[in-house]
Inverse folding.
């Protein structure tokens, strides 16, 4: 049941967060508790995704592990390069350029698995890509960001590694 309704909850919560400031409310629950609460919610969400992975789908990947590795390599090379290229062509403001590059360097997440399931795609492959990309993200993402952001943007790679291990890798593995 939860797997079937997660897409609806993603849409509802995203829409509510997007329109909340326009409602004129004096308290914003999306900012009320601050970064520690958001970090905790990310940990809970990643743990939930890991807990919902069907074991039989993961077993299917034993015969097609090479396609998951190849897909992950393609994802971690093409997306940062495409983001960097878009920034070079469009020349947006530095803050927007940094955001575009960060989005290009970070791997897919639970939404891609949910959308694959809704589209009746190969969910175990999507889960495999997401899982492998998540597990190696503390190594690859800081390197990709360092290579694509340039020297003008201050970036603490070790802090990113620690944060990604705590917020993403550990909850998913657990």
């Amino acid at each position: 049941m939860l797997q079937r309704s997660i897409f609806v909850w993603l849409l509802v919560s995203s829409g509510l967060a997007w329109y909340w400031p326009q409602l004129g409310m004096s308290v914003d629950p999306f900012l009320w508790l601050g970064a520690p609460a958001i970090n905790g919610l990310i940990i809970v969400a990643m743990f939930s995704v890991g807990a919902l992975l069907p074991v039989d789908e993961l077993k299917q990947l034993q015969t097609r592990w090479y396609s998951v590795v190849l897909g992950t390599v393609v994802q971690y090379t093409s997306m940062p390069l495409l983001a960097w290229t878009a920034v070079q062509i469009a020349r947006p403001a530095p803050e927007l350029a940094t955001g575009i590059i960060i989005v290009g360097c970070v791997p897919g997440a639970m939404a891609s698995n949910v959308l694959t399931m809704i589209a009746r795609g190969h969910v175990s492959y999507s889960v495999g890509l997401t899982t492998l990309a998540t597990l190696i993200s503390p190594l690859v993402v800081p390197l990709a960001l360092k290579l694509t952001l340039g020297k003008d943007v201050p970036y603490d790679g070790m802090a990113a590694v620690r944060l990604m291990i705590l917020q993403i890798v550990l909850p998913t593995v657990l």
About this structure: The mean pLDDT is 78.
